[in-house]
Amino acid sequence: MKLHWSPRSPFVRKVMVCAYEAGVADKFECVRSPVAMDKPNLELLHDNPLSKLPTLVLDDGFALFDSSVICEYLDSLHDGAHLFPAAGRERFIALQQQAFADGLLDVLLLWRQERNKPQSQQRPEWLAAFAVKSDASLDSLDKLAPQLRLEAIQIGDIAIACVLAYYDFRLPDLQWREGRPALTAWHACFAERDSMRRTEPGGGE
User: Fold this and answer.
1) How crowded is residue 94: how many other Cβ atoms within 10 Å of its Cβ?
2) How far, in whole angstroms, is CA 135 from its chain's centroid?
3) 81 contacts 149 by C-beta, under 8 angstroms
4) Rounded to 5 degrees, what angle do the CA atoms 45, 2, 57 make?
5) Rounded to an integer, what distance in angstroms lies between the CA atom of residue 122 and that of residue 160?
6) Which pLDDT score, from 0 to 100, does residue 174 have?
7) Residues in domain GST N-terminal (predicted)?
């Protein structure tokens, strides 16, 4: 198998953290696949017509995307404790937490894109809306923090840890920790996991 990969993509990082936690990171090859809005990657386009990362190509050529699908597939490749609960309310809580974190990442990616425009081209109403969504999400996560795991972790914990790490990497000026002690304490512990340390971003876009 091969994984279309970038060292700075937060969605790729979520997949890689899952792979290390599940013990299956050696089952696929990471292929560096740069992506840009104005220049589609033709090799990636062949496997994923959306030209988005991450994309996992199985040995038979079938391609899986997006990150949530890839993470669940990787979690099916081992017999240990699973990151995705099998059924019931626990499963839907984990899936909802993952969707929440992924949705917040989408907001942050768009926010960063808007912030990177020349000031004359930025839309203040958009920037204000992104800020409101970010603050509301972080406040909600701080209330959720006592329920987040440091042992027997699940996909929701991984996704939330990755979005908080993205704040630190790309939007450190937002200082997400201020006024959120429970979330800060949980993330400080989670960030010490080997899977998080091994997937710290770097090296180009």
Assistant:
1) 21
2) 18
3) no
4) 55
5) 28
6) 97
7) 1-82
**CA-based nearest residue to 5, from 143, 23, 25:** 25
The answer to whether 21 and 83 have CB atoms below 8 angstroms apart is yes
d(CA 191, CA 144) in angstroms, rounded, equals 17
3-state secondary structure of 63: strand
Q: Which domains does the chain have, with CATH numbers?
A: 2-75 (3.40.30.10), 88-196 (1.20.1050.10)
Q: Residue 29 is inside which H or E element, if any?
A: strand 29-32
Half-sphere exposure of 5 (CA within 13 A, CB side): 21
In sequence order, the 6+-apart residues with CB closer than 8 A to the CB of 94 are 83, 84, 85, 154, 155, 156
- Whether residue 142 contacts residue 151, with contact meaning beta carbons closer than 8 Å, is answered with no
Mean pLDDT by 10 residues, the chain (205 residues): 95 98 97 82 90 96 97 97 96 98 98 95 97 98 98 98 98 97 98 97 59
Specify whether the CB–CB gap between 198 and 26 falls below 8 A.
Answer: no
* The predicted structure's pLDDT at residue 40: 78
